[in-house]
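Supplementary Methods S3. Input chains for the assembly prediction are listed below.
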Amino acid sequence: MSATATLSPGLLERGVVSLREEVMPGVWKLRLHSPRISALGRPGQFVHIQCAQAADPLLRRPFSFCDINPAAGTYDILFNVTGQGTAILAAAEAGQAFEALGPLGRPFTIPDHGTLLAVAGGLGVAPFPLVARFAAERGVRFRWLNGAYTANQLFPVDQLPGAVEARLATEDGSAGLRGRVTELVRAELQEATMIHACGPTPMLSALADILFDHGGSAPPCEMSLEAPMGCALGTCLGCVVPSTDGGYARVCVEGAVMDWRTVDWIRLAAMGELIHHRTPPSRVGADVKVGD
Amino acid sequence: MAELDLSVRITDDLVLATPLMAASGTFGFGFEMEKVGGHAGYGALISKGTSVEPRVGNEPPRIAEVPAGMLNAIGLQNPGVEVVAGTYAPRWEEWEVPVVVNIVGDSVEDYVAVVERLESAPNVAGIELNISCPNVGAKGLMFGVDAGLAHAVTAAVRSATARPLIVKLTPNVTDLVSIAQAIVDAGADALSAVNTYVGMTLDLQSGKPVLANVTGGLSGPAIRPLALHAVYTVSRAVSVPVIASGGVMSGDDAVEFLLAGAVAVQVGTLNFLRPDAGRFVLQGIEAHMQRIGVRSVGEIRPAESQPSAQEAVR
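Predicted structure tokens for the full assembly:
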């Protein structure tokens, strides 16, 4: 319950669709021309997009910046269709406009040296093209660990900017290691200056377990979290996760990127499957189907 | 055209520059929205529900979207009256817009304790009593669903403060009018109508309620006709001003509530959709006034109370 968290400047801007592309089966990339938001967005921050003009669906939808081209004044988002809002976006035509609030939330800290270890599961790949771009600009080595249920759900490595060293994992063994992306993490810890992670909550929780095991020798780790979101400005208190101070942290303001030690993983686990009720099927498949 | 008069009077001590109030629970304590310019358009802000002790709130998921609305079960997360009175209230000094503090409690003593602590706090323009909380003493029965309990808590708070006292009605009752009358009899200066409607939604995959709390309060345009009926009914039954609340999404919606009998209108869920909600709704009201050629927002009144209609009745 931090009342003093800093808030990014709120901006409302209409973004005009300039490109829509199916990057992976059922996963869409939408490019929006929105110069003010594109000029300010940082890796790990998000936009809150109004998908409908009418009252249904009512709420905006949060999306991490997938990539930004400030010179062109555009940003990209990555999503699959999980409900009414994303169905509208997936059907958007070039020239169509959507009003967005942003950039919002805390960004990832990009180190200025060493090795950045990126751990992404399922659609948790979304913020990493922009992270990789910033890492490349700073000459930071980018180690890419990506897991999914099956090979065609892995993010195309050639769409990540800069020199990327990739290691992959699939649950069905169709590419890379057969298993979960978190099984790749232990071998990488020694070389990592910092870890950035994004993916389903069970993946983040498993990563937290590994870091906890390593105690003080674990590198700093920031995670991008997800929760059903209302206002995205910190007032509705809807998008909370349990925090280690005994209260709750707002994903929109104290996150979406948080130090992994901010989250009370034990309480979060006790809250169980309710937390994942909005997890899209493909992401459930990427992480929950193990052992089937 | 001459400048529009947008002011409304709730009490002699609570005269608002515009007829719009930010609804409790949709605006925090005003600080986040100040940073994004969200105060514009509002005649008053109503704070998040404030209790004697801090409350951490409910387990997530706390919100769920439903057709043309949302369910929330935040669980009254707030830092407690000590922080509100000692830290937040002094910071409201620099704001043009007055702040009404919404208060919650599990017993009459809780409510009175919050009000008494606020008595020494600066910049508290009024109190809004949230009586949609379970009464621990009455085995979980909400104060707001029983005329006797509603009267008792209102009377106790009334005797603890001379500040403007607004009581927010819960619509989840069989006879709203008798409860409203009991609250007015106990000394309330105004009524807010209405709080959220109890609702729920289930997840088809798990078969379980989406909200960890199982039920939540329904808000948004889905409840607007219900709230309009409540305002229409209550405002005709009581002598004090009624402040409308329920799914306002535009200036026209606010005008509709004024025509139903409200003196002022709260904007709630719309604050979650757009940080300029107050300004947006106010501009809509102004446009309506210019369209129909009235200069004072107080002239937007129920048809039967307008002079021409009264003439017609005679």
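The mean pLDDT of chain B is 94. Chain B has ten helices and 14 strands.
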